[in-house]
Amino acid sequence: MNQAIRKLSGLLVLPVLLAALLMMPVRAHAAEASYECYAELPVSVALNGDNDEQFHVMIEPAEGMGDAVPMPEEAVDGLMIAGDASDTFSNFHFTEPGDYVYVVKQEIGSTAYMSYDNTVYTVTIRVTNADNGGLQSEIWAVTDDNPTVKVRALSFLNTYAPPAPSTPKPDDHPDIAEGIANGTWGGAPTATPGAVNLNALLPQTSDDLPLTALVVVLVLAAAAIVVLVVLRVRKNKQDGQK
Asked: Which residue, 51, 75, 135, 169, shows the most beta carbons closer than 10 Å to its own?
């Protein structure tokens, strides 16, 4: 009998304990997002031409932002990006809402025949409250040339255009080039077989013969001719008288 009573009592105690547990206040801990957010800013460089230069892209706070503005890990050294490649300014860390403004530009290098893109981007990272209790960010940029149009991608276009190598002209006188090469160019001309030297057929005069002597010879010759003519005429008259 006593055993039955004990069993009955145990069965009655169990519902009472369950009811008491259900009536106790229960604290629910909802997961809250941390009040912070991170952002990153990709940058690309395109290159027209063929060159191995690494291009230097820099970031700095915009005027009026102050020194306390969150900066990426690469802020000190900037990004070194090869042509037709990309990299990222990473780990911007924000802990309160606001507009954070930066200036991104490319350093103008000194490579010959390289034209560097001098675009200057003004980048805004807007940090706002998120629905989950944390923070969220939105990023856009404008350029100095077109400050009213927002762009989502930061890119620079450089051009490498060295002058084309000159093409050598064909040699119109290969015999001259050959003569220069073997050392015979500039020597005495080779006589052509069968050619007649006209200079050898002409009488040669001496430049040392005095002009006066030549005149005397001509005068004597003329006088001799006159004498001969006179003698001839006289002889003909004498023959006629006989």
From this structure: 135
Mean pLDDT over the full length of the chain:
81
- State phi, psi for 207 to the nearest 5 degrees: -75, -10
Q: Which amino acid is at 59?
A: I
pTM above 0.70, yes or no: no
Strand order, beta sheet including 79-82: 79-82, 54-61, 98-106, 120-129, 135-143
CATH fold of 37-160: Immunoglobulin-like (2.60.40)
Looking at the DSSP assignment, which residues form a beta bridge with residue 91? Answer: none
Rounded distance between C-alpha atoms, residue 104 and residue 125, angstroms: 13
Q: What is the pLDDT of residue 208?
A: 52
Span between the terminal Cα atoms of the chain, in Å: 224
